[in-house]
Amino acid sequence: MTSRRDNVQPGHDPTIPILSGGVDELGVVPWPIVLRRRIHARVPLDYRWAVVWVVLSGLFAVGFTITLLVVTLESIATELHSDVGVLNWAIVGPMLAFGVVGPAFGKAGDLWGHKRIFLGGLGFAALFAVASALAWNAASLIMFRTLSATAGSACGPSAMAYINRLFGPGERVRPLSVWSFVTAGGPVVGVVAGAPLVDSIGWRAIFWVQAPMCLVGFVIALWLLPPTDRVSGVKFDVRGSATLGVGAVSLLAAISQGRAWGWTSPATIGCLVLSAVALWAFVRVEQRASAP
């Protein structure tokens, strides 16, 4: 008896089934895989770099708004009937989220899959970007901006994970360089472009633009990104995350509010002391942690 594989036509990819007729056969064809392979065969683009550009585009979409409000806080404070000292937390909060919560998403990606974490981060970042555009006072803006950045901070570790999985040790220099440029360059673009953008379209419109950027990235990533293997036995470093969070929050509170409180005030000095103690504890905890 001649097998079906022996009847494969010359030049045909044996991994793509030949549709010889029959309704039952149509039901088992993995159409997304077939379509993806045919497109990859026609487009002269390394699939690995396509993945890199998708994840880095998502990372930029969630990162460039972190510092976007720096040069326009005064006008926003006037509109929301607040002051610059309070609204400064609309910048400090997202920075803290990226620095403190981001590493935890790396562990979450190992546990539940980096594709799922990346998509969840982009989706919720888009949702809270819309909420930021609808903010009605300073507190709501600070809350929604921090939540958006918290969700978006998942994109950084997931992008790094995809690079490490798709490229060998000798091939990672270029993609990691681009990753570093996007991670550091996104907030810089926000500072430089903040004033012209706000003057031309308004600060609320910026978040209306960010939301569809995240959603477009979500759709492309849903279709293109390969799933990653889940790592068993992953443990969250709760004590390390807690001490790092306390240290970072205390330090940024002292730096951002020191001028208003007074650099020698008990509140500023207390925050600096608490930050030093917490960061020292963080180092000690990480030295002894089995899964830092």
Structure at a glance:
With 292 residues, the protein is mainly α.
What do these coordinates show?
The protein is 74% helix and 0% strand. It folds into two domains: 47-230, MFS general substrate transporter like domains (Growth Hormone, Chain: A), CATH 1.20.1250.20; 235-292. α3 packs parallel to α10 and α3 runs antiparallel to α11 (203-224). The relative contact order is 0.13. The protein has 292 residues and is mostly helical. The chain is globular and about 50 Å long.
Pattern of helices and strands? HHHHHHHHHHHHH
> What is the fold named in CATH at topology level of the largest domain?
Growth Hormone, Chain: A
The description of the largest β-sheet is:
none
Number of strands: 0
Look at the structure and give the mean pLDDT.
80
The CATH superfamily name of the largest domain is: MFS general substrate transporter like domains
Helix content: over 70%
Give the SSE layout.
Elements: H1 23-28, H2 31-42, H3 47-63, H4 73-79, H5 84-87, H6 89-112, H7 114-133, H8 138-152, H9 155-166, H10 173-201, H11 203-224, H12 238-261, H13 266-288
